[in-house]
Write a structure and sequence with these properties.
This protein is α/β, with parallel strands linked by helices. It is built from seven helices and four strands; from the N terminus they run αβαββααβααα. Helix 3 packs across helix 6. It is globular and about 50 Å long.
């Protein structure tokens, strides 16, 4: 995530996990490295990418940032944007984000619905939806 954010200064890396405690611990443990290499890491829950600031001056719209959080944090940002009728701004922001899923097995099992919601604006959402359906079916059927 740090390498991608360093090489693509207009991009933001979001590292999502199933636990807010894990996200906070990861943020603290990488803080010294990221401050020396990039910028201070953020928590996704603190980001306000659609708060109305301009892309140049608003810290939440700047690239080169690594942010940690839960899938639910990103879902909150998306729900808020959709409620405020900011579809275009949301898609523009999401195109600038690289999203990494830490502990993907836990996220797939515990937060599958949230992950589908986050993926819904993506063109490949329907393929992802089918994949989750098959995974959940196999878990329920074979478990």
């Amino acid at each position: 995530a740090a390498v991608i954010s360093k090489r693509s200064q207009d991009q933001m890396s979001l590292i999502l996990t199933a636990s807010s405690d894990r996200a906070k611990d990861d943020c603290e443990s990488t803080k010294a490295f990221l401050c020396a290499y990039l910028k201070e890491p953020k928590m996704v829950s603190d980001l306000k990418p659609l708060a109305g600031g301009d892309a140049e001056g608003d810290v939440h719209m700047q690239g080169g940032i690594v942010a940690y959080g839960q899938v639910n944090d990103l879902q909150r940002i998306m729900v808020d944007a959709l409620r405020q009728n900011q579809h275009c701004a949301l898609l523009k922001w999401l195109k600038r984000c690289f999203i990494f899923i830490d502990e993907a097995d836990h996220v797939l099992i515990e937060q599958a619905e949230s992950l589908l919601y986050v993926a819904s604006p993506c063109p490949s959402f329907h393929a992802l939806s089918e994949l989750f359906f098959k995974v959940l079916f196999c878990i329920d059927y074979y478990a």
